[in-house]
Design goal:
Mean pLDDT: 93
Shape: globular
Low-confidence stretches: 316-327
Structural class: alpha/beta
Distance between the termini: 37 Å
Strand content: 15-25%
Helix content: 25-40%
CATH superfamily: Alpha/Beta hydrolase fold, catalytic domain
Length: 332
């Protein structure tokens, strides 16, 4: 059974400055995870905190994508948002970057052939973000204007977070999809899942048998409408990988809180995957950008501007007057 429950308690932490700029400073926050079953190497929650030196105009959680290469780009984006007066919290998700499980590879465990192993990483990621929310409230820096930005894996987790928490005022999903069976078997990004034939042949729950796995998944997706709570869905007999799928959580998310950004030339996420998630979320406001899954990263200035506009915050810093490049156009 999947569960995002954890024991709330006062968080003993360390917080050290690593960079000071004219308008903001950056710190690294660390504390022991509140998740009960972490793998070795993931036990310490780690997050970058970008704090404006003036009073913060809002808070923004930025959840990065799978692996490590996108993290520096999002740290750069966070610095520009902090320069515009936003407090940005960028957690390193367990199993990625500096929090890779012992003997594993960055990002790999979220889509492991052993779904029980994968489950522990998805559970811990949600618990770690929720405990960061607890930490902010504990420190008295929580604001009602707290938004969430999730890219790729981070966007999938953002859907889950919205299903179990009312804390975030609005969430921007950046190039996100659902339907795990399709992703596991057809996404080029997840080729590593299909590469090891010996692991696939031993995979439980029929994960390694493509056609039957896809059929089972399709049948179980039709059952999602019958569940009245997240807990009921998590304790049901649907496929374990569907319980890690944003499609299963979408019905518990308020449509008006979601902004959906889709990349026109996204090859990492099959079109079906993106379409199904958007529909499951109730067809929230959707924008399209003329880029691929990751090629939007060099245009982060435009994304910064879009984030600020959605937070209802004017660009108050001269640096953000330079925002140009791609514009996000609403897609009906």
């Amino acid at each position: 059974m999947v569960s995002f429950k954890y024991e709330k308690r006062a968080i003993d932490f360390s917080l050290g400055y690593i960079f000071k700029a004219k308008k903001f400073r950056t710190s690294v926050l660390r504390f022991n995870t509140l998740y009960a079953r972490p793998f070795k190497g993931t036990e310490i929650v780690e997050a970058y905190v970008f704090d404006p030196k003036e009073q913060a105009l809002g808070n923004l959680f930025v959840l990065h994508g799978l692996g490590s290469t996108n993290v520096p780009f999002l740290l750069w984006m966070a610095s520009h948002l902090a320069n515009a007066g936003i407090r940005v919290i960028l957690p390193i998700l367990p199993g990625n970057f500096t929090r890779v499980a012992h003997g594993s590879t960055s990002g790999k465990d979220y889509f492991h052939q052993d779904v029980e192993r994968a489950t522990r990483f998805w559970e811990q990621a949600v618990v770690d973000v929720l405990s960061l929310v607890d930490w902010m409230k504990q420190q008295g820096i929580w604001l009602s204007k707290t938004h969430l930005f999730g890219f790729c894996l981070g966007g999938m987790l953002a859907v889950m977070l919205n299903a179990v928490s009312e804390d975030f005022e609005r969430t921007i999903l950046m190039t996100v999809g659902g339907e795990m069976a399709t992703l596991l078997w057809y996404s080029p990004t997840l080729a590593f899942f299909r590469r090891d034939k010996s692991l696939l042949s031993k995979a439980p729950y029929g994960v390694g048998k493509r056609e039957s796995f896809l059929r089972t998944f399709d049948d179980d997706i039709k059952k999602l409408s019958q569940f009245e709570t997240v807990e009921q869905m998590q304790s049901s007999d649907i496929h374990p990988y569907l319980k890690l799928d944003p499609l299963a959580y979408a019905k518990f998310v308020k449509k008006e809180k979601i902004v959906f950004i889709e990349a026109l030339f996204d090859r990492a996420l099959p079109k079906r995957s993106r379409k199904l998630l958007w529909e499951a979320l109730g067809k929230p406001k959707r924008y399209v950008i003329p880029s691929g899954h990751v090629t939007w990263l060099p245009f982060e200035y435009a994304v910064c501007k879009f984030v600020l506009r959605n937070m209802g915050i004017r660009e108050l810093r001269k640096q953000l007057e330079l925002l140009r490049g791609i514009e996000l156009e609403e897609k009906k």
